[in-house]
Amino acid sequence: MKELKLEESILSYILLILALLFFIFSPISNVRATSSTRYYAGYYYNGGSGPQHEGVQGNIFTIYPHVPYSETCAEWIDISLSIYENYWVQLGYVHHWVWFIFPFLTVDFYVEKNDINGRRMIYPTILKPLNTHTYTYKLLLTGSGEFSYYVYESSNLIFSGVINTDPDNTVDLLAFVETSVTSIKIDGSHFMYLRYKYTGSQWPLWDRHEPYWDYPYYLDQRGHYEFAAYGGG
Amino acid sequence: MINENKKFIISLSIVLIIFIVIGCYQPSVSQFTLDQPDFYGISEEITLEEFLNYTSRNNIPIHLPIKLPTENLKMTAIYLKKSPFITIIVYSEEGNKDYKTAEFGIEIIRVNPDRVPTFSDLQAKAEKSPNVVAKLINNWPVIIYEHAYNGHPEFREKYGDYNLIAFVYIGQLRYLIGAPLVDNANDLIPTIESMSLAN
Fold first, then answer.
1. Which of A8, A122, B55, B192 has the fewest Cβ atoms within 10 angstroms?
2. Taking every pair of C-alpha atoms in chain B, what is the biggest distance, in angstroms?
3. Domain coordinates of chain A in residue numbers?
């Protein structure tokens, strides 16, 4: 009787280990297969042939799409610092997977930059962007190599901060939805009141735009400073 | 009964430890990278003649190097976005037209007049960082980074994470020169010295 119990317990350990091994290794291969692909839908400001802009602002409606394991979906505004070297600074919110004993899908506000010194991503607050809420995101050059960021809901400041970049010359302004896999359905994405800044304190609405989307995503171009994005799934 | 409880606690602890270890070794899930769309979707590929005509018509003086880091480098592509003005000129020994992976390239953008750095600005920056050199070449402020991170995954796969780049400020234009096969700043200086008005 005792021997039988011992065998049962050994068997259950073996099964547990097998289940864990399967759990560990199957998602890793999935991550590696999908990590480098990106799909986009959104606007470039297309800001004329004059001097460069120094800030971008926009209202983004928050959506909670289904995001498969290890995949990601983000909505952001961005200032491009070099196309050739792929340098930029970005502010928005992102759905992503994290591990804390188990894998969890979470959503965070974030600021990210890619520059001469490398890549840096910051989650500036523990507060989460809430589903169906609209937040105002503002990103602007405020000093040599220094970009300030602000996120508001209505007129209430949720968080703000500073991120340093090198270089700091602005090349273009962008507002996009980004996914890592086309099975993420982005219906409901909505960017409004996109604004730019040259110098001074004025924030004019975008008065031109250049649309861009990757199949199977599409844009509903409601004006120079407003668009909805949909598709995928 | 005590033995059963002990067994249960030990089993639970083992499972928890395994999950924590897995969590620690799963960086690929949380270390995702966001990006921005590449330049091909929003720019047009044009010839050198078309580029020089466009920049002449729009009073944009363009300086291009006569001497390249290696003799076999040839201009393979020019990508232009007119608004805002962004140009990428690609050079390659292999006929590569991809600005992300070619052996040499120049990006030209406009800079706000009050954002054009002086030579002393660049010197102050270079003094703070190793592998950064500031020079005044042909009276143009120049800063060369011998160890600059490149943001393109395709580039990093081919050359590694870092490359040598230079920023040359001529008038209100910023020329970003990327030279992954050049090892040090001194080897790029003759190329910058040879930049002359092309239109």
1. A8
2. 91
3. 1-34, 37-231
For chain A, count helices (H), then strands (E). Answer: 1, 14
Q: If you ran DSSP here, which 8-state letter would residue B48 be given? A: H
Q: Which residues does chain B have with pLDDT short of 70?
A: 1-2, 19-31
Element holding A148 (H helix, E strand): strand A146-153
Mean pLDDT for A127-133 is 97
Q: Give the count of beta carbons closer than 10 Å to the beta carbon of residue A176.
A: 27
Confirm if A127 and A158 have CB atoms less than 8 A apart: yes
> Looking at residues A179-185, what average pLDDT do you find?
96
Task: For residue B94, give how far its alpha carbon lies from the nearest alpha carbon of chain A (Å).
Answer: 19
Note whether A77 and A90 are within 8 A (CB). yes
The answer to whether B113 contacts A51, with C-beta atoms less than 8 Å apart, is: yes
Q: Specify whether the CB–CB gap between B34 and A178 falls below 8 A.
A: yes
CA B48 – CA B83 distance, rounded (Å):
18
Q: What is the dihedral of CA B112, B113, B114, B118, to 10 degrees?
A: 120
Give B113-141 pLDDT, tens digit per residue: 888 999 999 999 999 988 999 999 999 99
- pLDDT for residue A7 is more than 90: no
Q: Which pair of tokens denotes residue A174?
A: 């962008």
Strands annotated E in chain B = 44-46, 63-65, 74-81, 86-92, 104-110, 132-137, 140-149, 162-170, 173-179, 195-197
Nearest by CB: A86 against B41, B84, B150: B150
The answer on pLDDT for A49 being more than 60 is no
pLDDT of residue A27: 42
Domain covering A37-231, topology: Jelly Rolls (2.60.120)
Candidates A110, A48, A41; CA nearest to B30 is A110
Q: Which residues contact A25 (CB under 8 A, 6 or more apart)?
A: none
pLDDT for residue A138 is more than 50:
yes
List CB contacts (< 8 A) between A96 and chain B: 29-30, 32
Interface test with A, best of B7, B29, B169 (most A CBs within 10 A): B29
